[in-house]
Target: Pyridoxine 5'-phosphate synthase
Amino acid sequence: MKLGVNIDHIAVLREARRINDPDPIEALGVAKRAGADQITIHLREDRRHINDNDAKKIAQLSPLPLNMECSIDEEIIEIVCALKPHRATLVPEKREEVTTEGGLDVISNFDKILQVVEKLKNHEIDVSLFIDPDFEIIAACADTGADMVELHTGEYANIYAMLYSNLRSTPHSIKNLELPRSELQERLAKAIGDLENSAIYASKAGLLVAAGHGLNYQNVIRIAQIPQIVELNIGQSIIARSIWVGFEQAVSQMKELLRETRNCN
Ligand SMILES: CC(=O)[C@@H](O)[C@H](O)COP(=O)(O)O
Ligand SMILES: NCC(=O)COP(=O)(O)O
Model:
């Protein structure tokens, strides 16, 4: 199972003071040494963290394959085509969102996404579509000619956090998930089932299957046990752990966890 390390949150820390430290570029060699298989960045339209200068330098200097997450905005797609990362992952974006909230609406935006996928592939860039675990959406993804889908694990991660962390007792408690534990357990089982079934369906449709969003050192194990998932993209929890153990250790601990989980299943 491959590990894509999303380094957005290194740039989040830099942007907190709007200076040049920490520099996401320094993470590239360290991530490789720690066993990462890919670098993932999200060049958002509002440039709240990774900016154009970061993306250009990372595309030029990364010793690992680069997976650039981006919206289907024309200006952004032009930039991605010019930088030629190994892969582009198309994600929905809303300016007001704290982080990505849902998957790409491939059905309503099919024609536009088809056009963007074709343009990226004409520039020899592989394409992944970041989607909610849904058969109809997966079928539409296969029709776009995309190489991969990345299953959005946010719903699963949120329910897991409400059940197995102190999230409920913090100001960030997720209001629509303040439910009895029995209800949350049922929802967690459904979220896992949706991810498992979607991974199987996507694989049978000829798509490579990745997953990501909100994965951490506790909730990742159940996702890594899904055999059809070949890659996880993880960022926030690795950067958070880096504060305590250092970035190299945080990456290698996640990679080792995935390796152990896969070898035991
Ligand atoms: C698509 C996804 O789940 C993340 O990779 C994305 O990068 C989230 O956006 P932020 O990194 O801006 O939170
Ligand atoms: N696509 C998911 C990703 O790149 C990282 O998401 P997160 O771990 O920062 O939530």
User: Anything to note?
Assistant: Residues 6, 40, 150, 212-215, 233-237 surround LD2JLWAY (ligand 2) (CB under 6 Å).
